[in-house]
Design brief:
The complex is a heterodimer of chains A (about 90) and B (about 450). Chain A is α+β, with helices and mostly antiparallel strands. Chain A has three helices and four strands; from the N terminus they run βαββαβα. Chain B is an alpha/beta fold and about 450 residues long. The longest helix of chain B is centred in the middle third of the chain and has 30 residues. Classes of the chains: A alpha+beta (about 90), B alpha/beta (about 450).
């Protein structure tokens, strides 16, 4: 299964490193990364493969959320299909 | 990969604009649980519900976490209990208590289907069940009740209308110390639908499969936010924007319904494309109408705005889902909508205007507090009027009014939680007693010569 991790908030040093470290810790493979600045906010979007992850996806998603809280950013991991179904026919 | 803008739009809809799945409702047929022995029937009902719905809440919670979309309610609807309890001839309240126990066991917050369908007349068990509704709602926690008293094909059963006025009032009296929960869980329908996932009017129709998953989506906040980005657009563009937004909302509902149905091993029934408000800020249908250009909901022009909204929601949603059903449209429950509450407080939104609005949107007079001294026949009159609108326009209409025992118009009652706050609305006190006491049936309306 593939998921999308979104990181939105104030830009700072090491965001990509920290989120990637979290992925690597749980054996989540990063497939694609894109970064932009949207309305003064830093936005990073990562497409990841969680099929070989060593924890349940719901737990991984909780870990992302707590990392977000730690960094003062909004970090969410959601199943890719929610975006696919909403934006593709 | 999907583009950044689309991803952020979805995240924003969920986090900022209150997009959610309002309910996953499992419909369970209890027709095979009927028995001439009430104890046996109740046991079969309990066992069947506990077996079928054992994983419902957990599956819903898992989908919620994985997909990052809040699923507010997990609920159950069952075959109208009047049908199931008829063979035993026992007190239907016994069934209500067993259903309540099953609902608690599987962890759903509401179970709908303490219902009777009497649009043309009372079958065995129907009247007994209807008379027992006040006690059933007062002695259980999670049971919701509905009664269908009319339809376009059959006309309106005025005997049932008369009784329902008394039942609504009695439900309020029996629960006056419990925040009037009785009448807030009781809906009187005309043209009730058999696959509605929304409470309090959900029941599992006799023509439905043994077990089915129906999903109700919501998102008034998303529609309002989309309209706020086009403040000067003409109405064509407004309608188009509502359609596109409804499409996106419904796609999420379709996804959740498909996943839930797969994981539970239960067929997918329908997605109900409704805009269901909550008292939370930014989750109001009235605010959408105001965004279209009304100073306040209830102003002249409200019915037109609502008609546009209701139609555009359906048009957008229909293509997004493989099966659409339920009530599908905009809900206007007064106490559950921050904008409606304000409009009712300021006196802009009156019960007569709400009645007109029900002619063009889904459902009807919903969660409206009326003075506690309103006589039963006036409540019956309200029900008859609403049913007539539904019957003539071939649409579902419903009445869920709350007689605020001990209070008068101008005061307020607070229900708490999703039920919200309601200013008590003034109702005409001229008596329809003679009309209501006549009984009989209003004949089914002509389906041609439509003027």
């Amino acid at each position: 299964m593939r998921a999308i991790i979104t990181v939105v908030g104030r830009d700072m040093v090491g965001i990509l490193a920290k989120v990637s470290a979290l992925c690597s810790e749980y054996n989540v493979n990063v497939i694609e990364v894109s970064q932009t600045i949207l309305q003064d906010m830093f936005c990073m979007i990562m497409l990841v493969d969680v099929s070989k992850s060593n924890i349940e996806f719901t737990q991984f998603s909780a870990k992302c959320e707590s990392l977000g809280k730690e960094l003062g950013l909004s970090v969410n991991a959601m199943h890719e299909d929610i975006f696919n179904s909403m934006h593709r026919i | 990969m999907i583009n950044t803008h689309d991803i952020l739009e979805t995240i924003n809809m969920i986090r900022e604009e209150n997009l959610d799945i309002r309910t996953i409702t499992m419909g369970i047929s209890l027709l095979d649980c009927a028995d001439s022995d009430a104890d046996k029937a109740c046991q079969k009902i309990y066992d069947k519900i506990c077996f079928k719905a054992q994983d419902l809440v957990k599956t819903g919670e898992n989908i919620e976490k994985e997909y990052g979309i809040p699923i507010i309610n997990k609920r159950i609807s069952v075959t109208p209990i009047a049908m199931v309890s008829a063979p035993s001839g026992a007190d239907p309240v016994k069934y209500a208590k067993m259903l309540d126990k099953a609902a608690k066991e599987v962890g759903v917050n509401f179970l709908g289907g303490y219902s009777a369908l009497v649009q043309k007349g009372f079958a065995a068990g129907d009247e007994r069940l209807i008379r027992s509704i006040p006690e059933a709602l007062a002695t259980t926690e999670r049971i919701c009740s509905s009664v269908n008293i009319g339809s376009t094909k059959t006309g309106i059963n005025m005997d049932a209308v008369r009784i329902m006025g008394q039942v609504v009032l009695e439900s309020a009296e029996l629960t006056k110390d419990k925040g009037l929960v009785g009448p807030s869980k009781l809906v009187v329908f005309c043209n009730a639908v058999e696959d509605n996932p929304f409470m309090a009017g959900a029941f599992h129709g006799a023509g439905e499969p043994d077990c089915v998953i129906n999903v109700g989506v919501s998102g008034p906040g998303v529609v309002r936010a989309a309209l706020s980005k086009i403040p000067d657009a003409d109405i064509t563009e407004v309608a188009d924007t509502v359609k596109k937004t409804a499409f996106k909302i419904t796609r999420v509902g379709q996804l959740v319904a498909t996943v839930a149905s797969e994981r539970l091993g239960v067929p997918f029934g329908i997605v109900d494309l409704s805009l269901a408000p909550t008292p939370a800020i930014g989750d109001s249908v009235a605010h959408i109408l105001e965004e279209m250009g009304l100073e306040e909901c209830g102003a002249c022009g409200t019915t037109a705005c609502l008609a546009l909204l209701n139609d555009a929601v359906k048009k957008g949603g229909v293509m997004a889902s493989s099966h659409v059903g339920g009530l599908s449209g905009a809900f206007i429950p007064v106490s559950e909508d921050a904008g409606m509450i304000d409009a009712a407080r300021s006196g802009t939104l009156l019960i007569e205007k709400l009645e007109a609005m029900t002619a063009v949107c889904s459902v009807g007079l919903d969660m409206i507090a009326i003075p506690g001294d309103t006589p039963a026949e006036v409540i019956s009159g309200i029900i008859a009027d609403e049913a007539a609108i539904g019957m003539v326009n071939s649409k579902t209409t419903a009445v869920r009014v709350i007689p605020a025992i001990g209070k008068k118009d101008g005061e307020e009652i607070e229900f708490g939680g999703l039920f919200g706050v309601s200013p008590i609305m003034k109702v005409s006190t001229a008596s329809p007693a003679k009309f209501i006491s006549r009984g009989g049936r209003i004949p089914a309306p002509l389906q041609s010569l439509k003027n």
